[in-house]
Amino acid sequence: MTPGARVAAAIEVLDNIQTGTPAEQALTRWARQSRFAGSKDRAAVRDHVFDVLRRRRSAAVYGGGQTGRALMIGALRQEEADLAPLFSGEGHAPAPLTDHEIAQGTAPTGTGDRWNLPDWILPEFQRSLGEEADATAFELQNRAPITLRVNLQKMTRDAALAALQGEGVATHPNPLSETALTVTDGARRLRNSQTYQYGGVELQDAASQAVIDLLPPASRCLDYCAGGGGKALAMAAKGLDVSAHDIAPRRMQDLPARASRAGVEIAQYNTAELAGQVGFDLVLCDAPCSGSGAWRRSPAGKWTLIQDRLDALNGTQDDILDQAVPLVATGGTLVYATCSVLRCENEDRIAAFLERHTGWQCRLQRRFNVMQHGDGFFTAHLTRVKL
Predict the structure, then answer these.
(1) What is the spatial distance between Cα 386 and Cα 360, in angstroms, rounded to a whole number?
(2) 20 to 30 A Cα–Cα from 271, which one of 26, 63, 100, 339?
(3) Where are the alpha helices (DSSP H) in the chain?
(4) How far apart are CA 355 and CA 98, in angstroms?
(5) Mean pLDDT by groups of 10 residues along the chain of 387 residues
(6) What are the residues whose beta carbons fall under 8 Å from the beta carbon of 216, sequence distance 6 or more?
(7) Which distant-in-sequence residues (6+ apart) come within 8 Å of 116 by Cβ?
(8) SS3 content of the chain, % helix, strand, coil (to 5)
(9) In whole angstroms, what is the distance from residue 212 CA to residue 77 CA?
(10) Are the C-beta atoms of residues 252 and 226 closer than 8 Å to each other?
């Protein structure tokens, strides 16, 4: 596909998203209907679409509209791209710009347009981040880094770096965690690399790894909201005795294979089975959240989130912490974590927990703001005090 044809394809996908189709579904539908598109073409179209979604409001201002074409024009203008060859009308490229489209291009001035966030969330975003709000909003408009967790059960970080380099995957150490490597080139070769298939590395954000690095010593651990099991695997790689649970067990269906590849053992419990398991030294609750700290990776999330949904998430977060309390041994630690930058999902939930439960202390709270090295995360350690 020519560069212009890729732009035209992105416009088609964006128009589909505008009708309410989820971004991933719209991209999959286009790919299935476009068998002629190679892997590089699909990746380029995906990049165009996600670049627009990260900056949808400013793209609409620069492009003068909300259609897929206007958004694509606006996004490319922000990148200072030469639009003429991309909108030539030749082959499968979009039609040339009209006089009206050429006259567009006003720079955004409003906070919501500049930050590329919905207006309703601006007060909470500002309250949550203070002086960091502006920088965080702009960082969320960039592509996220591709980060690996080195499995120290199998190899050192230096050995993983060298092995990946030999397989055409360039990386460098990430400062957020001693197990983290940031991929700088050759990401598409990763999953077929021997280092990955051997279980030497896993895809995992560096701030997520840093959350695990902060865990206190513990002998019997539970990942209460395990999902795909990324944090459970990271805990097990540190030599911890780890069990995993999720309210929807199907989310953990790939965990046995991932654990086998990593060379670790992780027991799995459904909710009924977990009722008989008590006295964990550490219970990690990586709670469902807005995902605002990872909106670079899932930018559609910031446009679909509404106040009612955020309120419901806060209720779910409180419920999860309450449900985990009986599982924690006296003197044990209840660890709360989210990939959110919003105070209502983080510090406010810890304060509300301490109001509901006596005999608990918060011994650590840490924020990881969105940066070039990792996503936005929050974690807090709640300790059941010995009576």
Answers:
(1) 9
(2) 339
(3) 3-18, 23-33, 39-54, 56-63, 68-78, 83-86, 99-103, 111-115, 122-129, 133-139, 157-166, 194-197, 206-213, 230-237, 255-262, 271-274, 301-304, 307-324, 347-356
(4) 61
(5) 95 94 93 88 94 96 95 95 94 93 87 96 97 96 96 95 96 97 95 94 96 94 94 94 94 93 92 86 97 96 96 98 94 96 98 96 96 96 82
(6) 282, 333, 381
(7) 54, 55, 56, 57, 58, 137, 140, 141, 302
(8) 50, 20, 35
(9) 41
(10) yes
SS3 235: helix
- Cα torsion 297, 34, 81, 23: sign: negative
3-state secondary structure of 78: helix
Quick one: tokens of 217? 């010593």
Q: What angle (nearest 5°) sits at the alpha carbon of residue 238, between those of residues 236 and 243?
A: 25
| Backbone region of residue 245 per phi and psi (left: phi > 0; alpha: psi in -120 to 50; beta: other values) | beta
Please check whether residue 176 is in contact with residue 373, taking contact to mean a CB–CB distance below 8 angstroms: yes
271 vs 45: CA distance, rounded Å = 41
The answer to whether residues 316 and 281 touch, using CB atoms and an 8 Å cutoff, is no
Contacts of 363 (CB under 8 A, 6+ apart): 333, 381, 382, 383
Contact, 330 vs 235, CB < 8 A? no
Q: Which residue has the tokens 């998203």?
A: 17
- As a residue count, the chain comes to 387
pLDDT value, residue 319? 97
User: What are 182's two structure tokens?
Assistant: 């940031």
Closest CA to 186 of 195, 174, 176, 177: 195
**The two three-digit tokens of residue 118, written as one number:** 């919905």
